[in-house]
Specification:
- By secondary structure, the protein is α+β, with helices and mostly antiparallel strands.
- Helix content is 29%, strand content 36%.
- The chain has helices at 12-18, 24-33, 75-89, 104-112; strands spanning 2-5, 36-41, 44-54, 58-66, 94-100, 116-121, 131-137.
- A seven-stranded mixed sheet has the order 1-2-3-4-5-7-6.
Length: 139
C-alpha cells in the first residue's frame, strides 16, 4: 500500500539526495511552502512529487519521480492523484506540467493522466531540446 504525505525536515536529507538537481535552497523552499509530496511503501520513501505555481497561480508539477525498483507499483499514480485532489481543493481549475520533447515515456504518462499537449519552447543554453508543456483542466 502506498502512503502519500507532505515531508518535513526529517525527510530533507532524502530529498536532497534524490532531488539533487535543484539544490538545497530550492528543496528547503519547497518543504517550507508545502510544495512536495512523498510516497512511502512499507514505511520506506520511494518517490516524490515537487510542484510550484506558474505565474504564482497555476499549479505546475515540476518533477515526479519514483525510485527504480518501485516503479509500476502505483506510487507515481498515488502521488499524482493526491496532488490533483489537493490542488482542486485549493481552488485550482487548471494543472500544468512539462517534459523534454524527446522524453516519450513521461509524455505518455502525462497523457494517461489526462494532460493534453499545449505547446513547446526552446531554451537555448539550458536544454538541447525543446520543452513540451501539458495542461489538464479540472472540473
Amino acid at each position: 500500500m502506498v502512503e502519500v504525505a507532505k515531508p518535513g525536515q526529517a525527510e530533507k536529507e532524502w530529498l536532497l539526495r534524490e532531488d539533487h538537481r535543484v539544490g538545497e535552497a530550492w528543496v528547503s523552499r519547497c518543504i517550507d511552502l508545502g510544495e512536495y509530496l512523498i510516497a512511502r511503501e512499507q514505511g520506506e520513501i520511494v518517490g516524490f512529487l515537487r510542484f510550484s505555481r506558474f505565474w504564482g497561480r497555476i499549479p505546475y508539477m515540476e518533477m515526479i519521480r519514483v525510485l527504480d525498483g518501485h516503479r509500476r507499483s502505483g506510487a507515481g499514480t498515488a502521488l499524482f492523484l493526491a496532488w490533483e485532489t489537493a490542488m482542486r481543493e485549493s481552488g485550482a481549475r487548471l494543472l500544468m506540467t512539462s517534459s523534454e520533447c524527446d522524453e516519450s515515456r513521461p509524455q505518455d504518462w502525462h497523457r494517461r493522466n489526462g494532460f493534453s499537449e499545449t505547446g513547446s519552447i526552446e531554451l537555448p543554453g539550458i536544454q538541447t531540446v525543446p520543452e513540451v508543456f501539458f495542461l489538464k483542466k479540472l472540473d
